[in-house]
Design brief:
The complex is a heterodimer of chains A (153) and B (729). Chain A has 153 residues and is of the alpha+beta class. Helix content of chain A is 38%, strand content 15%. In chain B, strands 10-11-8-18-15-16-17 form a 7-stranded mixed beta sheet, with helices on both faces. A 5-stranded mixed beta sheet of chain B has the order 13-21-20-19-14, with helices on both faces. Classes of the chains: A alpha+beta (153), B alpha+beta (729).
Chain lengths: 153, 729
């Protein structure tokens, strides 16, 4: 089956089993490995990408449902919120092993795009689906607040 | 053995970057081992400076070769900090790559083989890497002196610039080739602590920008050389089971599946890419032979462990006459503990890439035990040690999981590669990927254990005797490390943190008993301390309560000849406001523990929700790890170590029903999430003592600190983990 969609602003055609997850199409067919495999059941958020700006788990999003979709991945995410998040992540040295951080960043960018000044409760709600086994959560929270400061400044 | 159903030539995908390009290290972090033989170090080229631990290139970059895997603990940056400081380099010229497998050059000086573990990276490298930096600086200075015809003693080096009062200046890159011609000083002069510019101050991590941008080729999972095939393996659902028979007809019909092989560990499904491999495995029909497998439930196994703690087992440690002291005790405090199996659950599941052509083998993966894996691969493949090369790359977490003594992931991929050649396939790289289900159900757990503690008190409430018996499967017994680590039949990793306690008990006896089971066990972040810290520190609070003493004051009374332990305890208590009243509904607990040479005290503050569950509000920690090489990274390791331990004690357990693991993924083995994470404050004790470990020591105290806070809140002593079983989560 052939599915036409937009990935990071570029029109792409995926020749893939419609029942196969977007995650593996991105990683193995398109070679875009920034989006990570963590659990395969939408329980860890490592595979988070944006579909029309909304964070989704690409391991549970099937290629056959994506005709005409606009997908953004860590490789292509841009704009003020994304720049602020990446800058905050780097300056606060959030990552340890780093494997989950693509997903963390995609969820954080989506949060700040909707809610430029999130409360701790907003952060809990938006980020609880993103697991970090290194438990970098203290710095993730701080980096989101820092990015919010940058967006206001 | 099954026959080849597709030929590798069909598998080339043009949009992939080429295998060669990746192999040559163009994508960062990857090195061709063949380039880095000892001979290559004998001298630099005309423009480059090459020594085993650092290369200086004409572009002015200084590249450190990290002999240790960085699986998130900041080791690569830590080693770079040491060299950059002695070299007086600028932060922005520093790079880091992982050293090849070469035990002569890159052995862990504590273990004698190349490998990372036991929180030993900085401790064993502290002098070695500083000496490498100091030697390189001396050679740069000597080269500049020769070129400028000035005395070396008049030359200054700062932030990557070599200069002389006469006006000469040069960057490292300009002097690299000349410096390489200078003699390597046998005993380079090291800086004194007052001269350090980065150590103990700040040196930002070198890997955060890549890890904050989805940079390609960072992890093994992302490594996709030309022609790569992916294998997943159906392994026995019961530990110790074997394949009886299998039908691969449906698996072979899954588009993208290339072949199916039986290997010793199960049935491997080989495919063009990951998803077909996973789907192919789902379509396999395998009959398992469980005749030699573990078929008990975990409840039966824990019952056996409890019984075993009543038997003498192996004597680990005895001071005084514990038996007599216990008989004379006025009162005996009795506590029995049990701990579940725990999975490590690193975010990147296990994965390895191997290219084997029948004569040589090249690996790419987050290799944690180079020498053991290297030897194991050579033996499995039937080729010489010198025919195997290992390219170590960043690992997405480990927590112990990537260094099993039996090297089973390496052996398994060797079996897959051999099967591919036997089937007549041309040599292509293969990646074995573990799914999360494979990870959680695949064994190699923190051992399940039972502990029996009896504490004798005299009429005045003083401790007179302390008896501690533990039963668990030994990680070391029966492993490749048994001969070295258990010369007396004692597994010290099982009771570390108990038999070596610095609490002054007049009489103490520690025993251990070994459970036999097919369930494979493995070190899990802080190894024996994961349970002994909990047992010792909860027991200390329980005795303090019994004798009417304040938990901090009681510990300080009991700590003998260990001022650093007392110091971190005092510091954490002071910073947490231990002596000040808490707001309504808040409760505190404390624990202090030494592990891997480092001392950590933690004060946890919790609140109770209306439904009886707890919320961990704040943890105040104090750390003494000797020279704090990279303070911000120490803070990060304490934050992360607390989070890792907290998730486990709150709600994690691996259970077996008739030998089959019941938890399968992050839904049933649910990790700590951001909403569970407390505020954390970390205080580092300034020190000029030799640096000790920081990857693990933050983890042990959090469990008992929380348990002691729960006891303060509810009067209940949680002695069976996880706490979710007691309705606290």
């Amino acid at each position: 089956m052939s599915v036409s969609l937009t990935i990071n602003g570029n029109p792409r055609t995926l020749e893939a089993d419609p029942e196969s997850p977007l995650l593996w199409a991105l990683r193995d067919e398109l070679g875009m490995t920034g989006t990570k495999f963590g659990c395969g059941i939408a329980a860890c958020g490592a595979c988070t990408v944006h579909w029309d700006g909304v964070p989704i788990r690409s391991c549970q999003t099937m290629v056959g449902d994506l005709e005409g979709a606009e997908i953004t991945t860590i490789e292509g995410v841009g704009g003020r919120a994304a720049e602020a998040v990446k800058a905050a992540w780097t300056s606060l040295e959030v990552p340890q092993c780093g494997y989950c951080q693509s997903g963390q960043i995609m969820s954080a960018v989506a949060l700040l795009s909707e809610t430029p000044r999130p409360t701790d409760g907003d952060i809990d709600a938006a980020m609880d689906g993103n697991v970090c086994r290194c438990a970098t959560y203290v710095r993730i929270r701080k980096a989101i607040h820092t990015a919010a400061d940058m967006l206001e400044g | 053995m099954q026959t080849l159903s597709r030929i590798p030539g069909e598998l080339t995908r043009p949009d992939r970057r080429t295998f060669l390009k990746l192999s040559a290290g163009a994508a960062g972090g990857l090195l061709l081992a063949t380039r880095l033989t000892s001979a290559a170090y004998a001298q630099g080229t005309e423009t480059e400076f090459e020594q085993p631990f650092l290369h200086i290139r004409p572009d002015n970059s200084v590249t450190i070769l990290s002999k240790h895997l960085d699986k998130g603990q900041g080791t690569a940056t830590g080693l770079t900090t040491l060299i950059a400081d002695e070299l007086d380099a600028a932060h922005d010229q520093m790079r880091v790559e992982f050293a090849p497998s070469n035990p002569d050059l890159y052995k862990n000086l504590i273990y004698g083989i190349q490998g990372t573990g036991g929180s030993s990276a900085m401790a064993n490298s502290f002098l070695q890497y500083r000496q490498a930096g100091a030697a390189a600086k001396a050679m740069l200075v000597a080269a500049a002196a020769r070129q400028w015809d000035v005395p070396a003693s008049e030359i200054a080096v700062s932030q990557g610039v070599v200069s002389h009062a006469s006006g000469h200046t040069a960057r490292f890159g300009e002097l690299a080739g000349l410096a390489a011609q200078e003699d390597v000083p046998a005993e380079p002069v090291l800086k004194t602590p007052e001269q350090w510019v980065y150590i103990g101050k700040a040196f930002p991590r070198l890997d955060v920008a890549n890890k904050s941008s989805g940079s390609p080729d960072t992890f093994t999972m992302d490594f996709q050389p030309e022609g790569l095939l992916v294998a997943v393996v159906a392994r026995p659902p019961r530990f110790g089971g074997k394949v009886a028979s299998f039908d691969a007809t449906a698996a072979r019909n899954v588009p993208g599946v290339v072949d199916v092989f039986q290997i010793p560990s199960g049935v491997a499904v080989l495919a063009r890419s990951t998803w077909p491999a996973i789907k192919g495995r789902e379509a396999l029909v395998v009959e398992w032979d469980d005749s030699a497998a573990e078929v008990r439930s975990s409840d039966a196994m824990i019952a056996e462990l409890r019984d075993m703690t009543a038997e003498p087992g192996v004597m680990v440690h005895e001071v005084g006459d514990t038996g007599a002291a216990m008989e004379q005790a006025e009162k005996v405090v009795e506590l029995d503990f049990d701990f579940p199996f725990l999975a490590h659950g690193p975010m990147e599941p296990l994965d390895i890439v191997l290219l084997f052509d029948g004569e040589t083998a090249e690996f790419w993966y987050g290799c944690q035990s180079q020498t053991g894996d290297h030897a194991g691969a050579a033996e499995s493949l039937g080729i010489g040690f010198d025919k195997v090369s290992i390219n170590t790359i960043w690992a997405g977490g480990s927590f112990g999981r990537r260094s099993p003594p039996d090297r089973h992931p390496v052996i398994e991929i060797c079996e897959v590669a051999k099967a591919m050649l036997t089937a007549g396939m041309a040599p292509v790289p293969v990646k074995v990927v573990w799914t999360r289900e494979d990870d959680i159900t695949g064994g190699y757990y923190r051992p399940m254990s039972a502990h029996k503690v009896r504490v004798g008190l005299d009429g005045e409430g003083s401790v007179t005797a302390f008896k501690y018996a533990i039963a668990a499967k030994s990680i070391i017994k029966g492993s490749a490390y048994e001969a070295v680590m258990m010369p007396n039949g004692v597994d010290p990793s099982m009771t570390e943190g108990a038999h070596d306690t610095s609490y002054a008990f007049p009489a103490m006896r520690v025993n251990q008993a070994f459970q036999e089971t097919q369930v494979p066990v493995l070190w899990w972040r802080s190894v024996g301390h994961t349970h002994t810290a909990y047992v010792m520190e909860v027991t200390m609070d329980r005795i303090a309560l019994e004798t009417g003493k304040d938990p901090v004051a009681f510990r300080l009374e009991m700590i003998k000849d260990d001022p650093r332990k007392a110091n971190v305890l005092r510091l954490a208590a002071e910073k947490a406001g231990w002596d000040t009243p808490l707001p309504e509904g808040r409760y505190r607990g404390v624990a202090v523990h030494k592990s891997f040479g480092s001392y950590v005290a933690e004060v946890a503050e919790i609140s109770l929700r209306d439904d009886g569950t707890i919320k961990v509000e704040k943890v105040t920690a104090a750390v003494d790890c000797g020279v704090p090489i990279n303070p911000d990274n120490i803070v990060a390791q304490v934050e992360g170590g607390i989070g890792y331990g907290l998730g486990a004690i709150l709600r994690n357990q691996v259970t077996l029903a008739e030998g089959v693991v019941e938890e399968t993924n992050f839904d049933t083995y649910e990790p700590l999430r951001i909403s569970d994470m407390p505020e954390i404050e970390v205080h580092i004790v300034p020190s000029n003592e030799a640096p000790t470990g920081m990857g693990e020591p933050g983890t042990p105290p959090i469990g008992p600190a929380i348990a002691n806070a729960v006891a303060a809140a509810t009067g209940k002593w949680i002695t069976s983990l996880p706490m979710a079983k007691a309705g606290l989560v």
